[in-house]
Design goal:
alpha+beta, globular, 34% strand
Length: 180
Amino acid sequence: MSRHFGAIRQLGYVVHDIEAAMDYWSKTLGVGPWFYNPKVPIKNYVYKGEPYEPHNSVALANSGYVQVELIQTRNDVPSMYRDFLQAGRTGLQHVAYWTSDYDADLARLTAQGFKTVMSGEVGEKGRFVYFDTEYHPGTVIELSEVAGPKGRMFDLIRAESETWDGTTDPVRPFPDLSKI
């Protein structure tokens, strides 16, 4: 448990081949089912103060209380993920903490000296921010808002992992955030 953020809720892995990564995680590690979106609809994306339009594929599954996120960049838009890959790395890139009081937590963390590098929004009340905390690989901190549909999707993913038999439909589409 982090004194600053609470429990780590997600481990974010940047990979070159998301399909192969989902296959490995489900068959070898028994983690799944994976909820996959080949092009995540990110709005209001900003990296180092500049707006861009990223094309990222994302897959999400839970292993107990912790969500695993697999990320593959599909274009060359500047991002912390691209920087990670260009530095010759793959694997764990960030840890995420979830909040239902995004504005207050972001203000508190900013007041403590945390600096925003990358931010955006996935669905209503689905904002996220990545801080400049990569002191060694895998230590970027993400603050992720889960007060809206994205949070309900995360609940669904965890619930599905608890009853998954390990073989049936190991890869599933993301639910439509406008309908949950």
